Amino acid sequence: MATTMQWLLFGVLPYVAMTVFLVGLIWRYRFDQYGWTTRSSQLYEKRWLIIGAMMFHYGAFLAIAGHVLGILVPEQWTEALGIPESLYSLVSKVGGTIAVVMVVAGLAVLTVRRWGNDRVRAATTGVDIAVFVMLWLMIILGAMETIGVNDFGAGYNYRPSIGEWFRGLFYLQPDPQLVTGAPLIYQVHITVAWFFFMLFPFSRLVHAFSAPVGYLLRPYVVYRSRKPAKPQKERKWQTIGRSR
Amino acid sequence: MIRAQLMMVMALDKCIGCHTCSVTCKQAWTNRSGTDYVWFNNVETKPGTGYPKRWEDNEHWRGGWELTESGKLRLKAGGRLRKLTSLFGNPDLPLIDDYYEPWTYDYEHLVSAPLDEYSPVVRSRSRLTGKAIDLRGGPNWDDDLAGAAELFRSDPNTAALGEQARLEYEQVFMFYLPRICNHCLNPSCVSSCPSGAMYKREEDGIVLVDENKCRGWRMCVSGCPYKKVYFNHVSGKAEKCTFCYPRVEDGMPTICSETCVGRIRYIGVVLYDDEDVLRAAHTPAEEDLVAAYRDVILDPDDPQVHRRAEQDGVPHDWIVAAQRSPVYHLAKQLELAFPLHPEYRTLPMVWYVPPLAPLADNAADVGFDASDASKVLAGVQEMRIPLAYLASMFSAGNIQVISEALGRLSVLRAIKRALQLGADVPDGLLEDVGLSEDDVDLMYRLLAIGEYEDRYVIPTAHREDVGAAQSEHCSLDFPGGPGMSEAVGGGGGSFFRDSEGTTRFNLLNWDGRSPIGETP
Fold it and tell me: Which residue segment(s) compose the domain that A137 sits in?
């Protein structure tokens, strides 16, 4: 049986984190549109930002795709498609290693830039620092899993254990024992990630949810009337100060 | 569809470079944090590097539009996919050093410095880092040709002068160029915004940023070839000139116009067909752009235009204003005003009457003779400000159209001078430049007299729906809502609305009669 601590970390914390994440995002979106921005520091420094941010973001996309493939997609599905475990393992090792290199290098450039450049450092807030710390913790642990455990170590098949547990969270059947058998490094990585998700809605990271894909389809010049939409006649309540 | 557009014209002859427009604009709009380096309105000395430095060099900054070899119009910085893939680091964004590092002074030191042999001095401190800095730039760093010996060639327009550098003291030339957002008909900033946060208003063509939709991707800053969208580095959002929309909606001119000492600015309505905009932007030869842009502006006295405008919902008073519009007269009818850098293909809607004054300054040297028609026009060709330089700024290199406009300006002077002195107006002068006597009177009334009500013909915004607008901020006054209750504003005077729009009960001022229990 899982101990109380394990239940808290792998049975309760995920739901707390997901609630904070979702409610936080909705709250922020409704009440802080003005604060919803990348808060770019490119005006202060450009060269290293382009190098670091390009590597970090594209590496992060690869890493996110890898997590979706590894944790959300059950092993049975890839097997049903006729993809053998060896091929999956190879793809995840190559893709994972590339992602680790890009994310670590990118974040390293961005970190040095943020602390090395006077102007950028002066514009750094407490939340920014927290984001950097959480990112580094999460990424170092992830890198140790990908490179330390899987590339050079004994390897660990997280798909039947951690993947199963993660999907179980969404069926409302959390089973901490699936995780407690995993190497400790995986358990810490998961726990840090939940705290990262709790920080997410309150940081500039929210800009990820504004990825402007609509730009590909929209006409170039946007026209808008200064006439606002008419409010409904009988409304019980209405958000103040937010344009519809 | 016919739309109305608020347009501005600036008569550069009258600009004295006093920067009052910049200062009043800054006090009205950009005295907040993060906008320290932001000048919605600025005045540049030409020739000069401009603000930000060398903004006109769009081979470098890649703002605006360009025609591809096959004649297609595209954003100079690349299309949609390119924008999205370079979202994480915009390669064309100017740095704060391309503007200047904003600073303040350490005044406290004057008071707090310990007794010393030397008087304390104030040091300049960066507003970005708080550290002491040596100033290497600032607003109007090269004002009035300061440093021109070094900076002259950093003005991209001087390329039009070839090797013929006019740097000798006797030959040197300059004029002032006040700049605001051009509120273009084909705005490349709006087109560059990935979020769709920027928009052009249907009613008056003012280009604005929706601060609640902006996500700080900064593509508008680099996409604007005039560099008139700025990045607020504290809020992380784009900000730009608003054409003082709260003022013009009430029929008042923008604050830069209102306070203009030289009375150089004109504001009015023009009508255009939005289907003509892209056609004009596609004009193949750059020299034809000014004529193409003029063609987009429709004649408001044409009954057909009038009828179509009313059909398309342009309010009647706006059409009447378009008929009285001083900018229509200057830009279209008299062909005196020109768009700034039409080759950016954005169809800017702030136009300029090119400066003539330096010609008259040394008129005798170049053979100017007001009594001789041929010499009046010959003088234009020999102007102190080289025509090629003006053409590089205002007509994409078309010297002909600039020289014609300057010819009309100099003929106006010649005629008015002759009348003043009781001399005969030389024959053929008007025909040479294609003006009628009415045109001359109109030019004189607009440019020389320039009464307030002639310079600004601004119809008020239509307020039929203003109630709906207010309810966005305060949702209480719908029928039966708490804002409609008798107690608000009257009765016991005890209910009040806080800044959030919630109705609250003020116990302190309660008269003891109105019921507390009905507090919503």
Answer: 4-32+40-210
CB B358 within 8 A of CB B175: yes
**Shortest CA gap A162–chain B (Å):** 32
B215 contacts B82 by C-beta, under 8 angstroms: no
The verdict on a CB contact (< 8 Å) between A40 and B236 is: yes
Residue A41 near chain B (CB below 8 Å): yes
Strand partners, B265: B10
User: Are residues B65 and B345 in contact, defined by beta-carbon separation less than 8 angstroms?
Assistant: yes
If you count residue pairs, one on A and one on B, with CB atoms under 8 Å apart, how many are there? Answer: 163
Supply B309's token pair.
């405008």
Helical (H) or strand (E) element with B504: strand B503-505
* Residue A216 included in any domain: no
Of A153, A148, A158, A194, nearest to A178 by C-alpha is A158
DSSP states of A188-242: HHHHHHHHHHHHGGGSGGGGGGG--GGGGTS-SS-EE-SSPPPPPSS-S---TT-
| Residue B373 placed within a domain | no
Rounded Cα distance, B223 and B344, in Å: 11
> Does B486 score more than 90 pLDDT?
no
Q: Has residue B106 been placed in a domain?
A: yes
pLDDT-based confidence at B468, cuts 50/70/90? very low
The DSSP code sequence of A19-62 is HHHHHHHHHHHHH-STT-S----TTT--HHHHHHHHHHHHHHHH
Given a contact cutoff of 8 angstroms between Cβ atoms, the answer to whether B269 and B322 are in contact is yes
Model confidence at B261: pLDDT above 60: yes
Among the partner residues A210, A214, A222, nearest to B190 by beta-carbon distance? A222
Domain that holds residue B169: 19-189+206-241
Coil, strand or helix at A16: helix
Q: Which of A215, A235, A237 to mutate to test the interface with B (most CBs of B within 10 A)?
A: A215
Domain membership of residue A119 (yes or no) is yes
Q: How much of chain A exceeds pLDDT 90, in percent?
A: 82
H helices within B260-398, ranges in order? 274-281, 289-296, 303-311, 316-323, 326-328, 357-361, 373-381, 387-394
Evaluate whether residue A226 is within a structural domain. Answer: no
Binary contact (A230, B472; C-beta < 8 A): no
* B90/A42 Cβ within 8 A: yes
Residue B265: inside a domain: no
- Number of domains making up chain A: 1
Q: Which of A38, A57, A123 sits opposite B215 (nearest CB)?
A: A38
Q: Is residue A218 part of a domain?
A: no
Kindly state whether A207 is in contact with chain B, defined as any CB-CB distance less than 8 angstroms: yes
Size of chain B in residues: 520
CATH of residue A124: 1.20.950.20
Query: For chain A, percent helix, then strand, then coil, each to nearest 5?
Result: 70, 0, 30
Per-residue confidence (pLDDT) for residue B357, from 0 to 100 = 65
Distance CA A43, CA B232 (A): 9
Q: Where is average pLDDT lowest: A185-194, A234-243, B225-234?
A: A234-243
Residue B185: name the closest of B340, B7, B425, B46 by CA: B7
Query: What is the three-class DSSP state of B35?
Result: coil
Residue B399 lies in a domain: no
Q: Which of A50, A118, A204 sits opposite B89 (nearest CB)?
A: A50
In chain B, how many domains are there?
A: 2
Which of B126, B128, B200 has the CB atom closest to A223's CB atom?
B200
Contacts A127 to B, Cβ<8 Å = none
**Cβ–Cβ contact A47 with B under 8 A:** no
Inter-residue contact B355 to B320 (CB < 8 Å) = no
Interface pTM, i.e. ipTM = 0.89
B428 touches chain A (CB under 8 A): no
What pLDDT is recorded for position B475? 44
Portion 50-89 of B in contact with A at CB < 8 A: 80-81, 83-84, 87-89
Whether the pLDDT of residue B488 is over 50: the answer is no
